[in-house]
């Protein structure tokens, strides 16, 4: 079985698309997902399955729509892919520290994409990169570093130009999910 992380877009944000995590876990158990765990209310789900990503993505999307009436993009990563995201951060500790000192809120984020964006669409983000808003596209992941804030960021607001479904998580959430995977692996190997 593979350990997966499903990240839902736009769940429990600004009072919209409300889903209680206990109800979400119960709903997803009907899909025969194993060892389901959630983290915070924004739709971060850790689980095991022997099915491939594409099938799981459709099943989870359809189940959420059926049970909750919400059409949410479902972005999936394996535990290994999540660990690569953590290990391959393109920003130095110094850059992150400097951004953190001046940022209003979290400074480092990752936009997780459903698919690799085309080069043409990736180039559409270039005009929005500046000394206060940086990004590096690495396959299906976009690392974002903000020296001010993600709120009202022209770079973050133009991620849609990649023309690929995406959801954004701050670094704290990414690293917490990674540690949950490690805890899960530890318990499984005992």
From TrEMBL:
Superkingdom field: Bacteria
Pfam families: DUF1697
Protein name: Uncharacterized protein (DUF1697 family)
